[in-house]
Amino acid sequence: MEQLGLFAAPRRLFTCTPSKLGSYEDCPRLYRYSYIDRPAPPKGPPWAHNSLGASVHNALKNWYALDPERRTPGALPTLLKATWVREGYRDEEQERQAYRRALDWLEAYVTGLDPADDPVGVERTVATRTETLALSGRVDRIDQRGGELVIVDYKTGRSELSEDDARGSRALALYAIAASRVFRKECRRVELHHLPTGRVAAHEHTEESLGRHLRRAEQTAADIVAAEAVIAAGGPADEAFPAVASGRCRWCDYRSVCPVGKSTDPAEPWAAVD
Question: 177 Cβ partners below 8 Å, 6+ apart?
């Protein structure tokens, strides 16, 4: 007679990041191209706005890595040059203009920071688990203010941001949940720092609102698992992961291989920084 184990096998957790969940919510076909199809379809050319954003984020990370007495606006030209990503720009002139704008943003931004203030984390990975998720993500900055943690996310896009953007951000809410569990401190406040305007869009979460974001994340994960099961059973991948037509199609890395994306006019790689 086969001896039964004392305990049931643990449930396999769905490993994810907020961006992974967000890609499915934006377009299941994008998710499939990014995380399931192997080899992955070829991507389009690099985007200049991504290069600009990465350059600014890395410059701020390295600014905080300096000793406090060296955290001055004067340190920024060297830091930005060292982290500058050149891909995607139309030409050298556009790239020079983008660099000058980025430096102006950074100099204005750090003027409002206390150089002696060390965040709890800079480009810090936080992680947590639920009954169904193994969730992790990298936070631009985690501050401690008055005994509580604050999630800070830098934004470099052209669009201005509002409190609704901060409140509705699934990623920020999940970062707050994970940070509170990693550091064992309350974390309710999330902030979007828009460097082009210097404005901060903030929201103070409650346990209830954080719980809603987490439940929606778990539902998204369940939807992904169900779609993957369809493929595993031999079902059509395009039906399991349908394409969702939207304005994002013009900017999709996989537009050239997606039938829906091909029907849209492509955006030039440099258009968002013009």
Answer: 128, 135, 187, 210, 213, 214
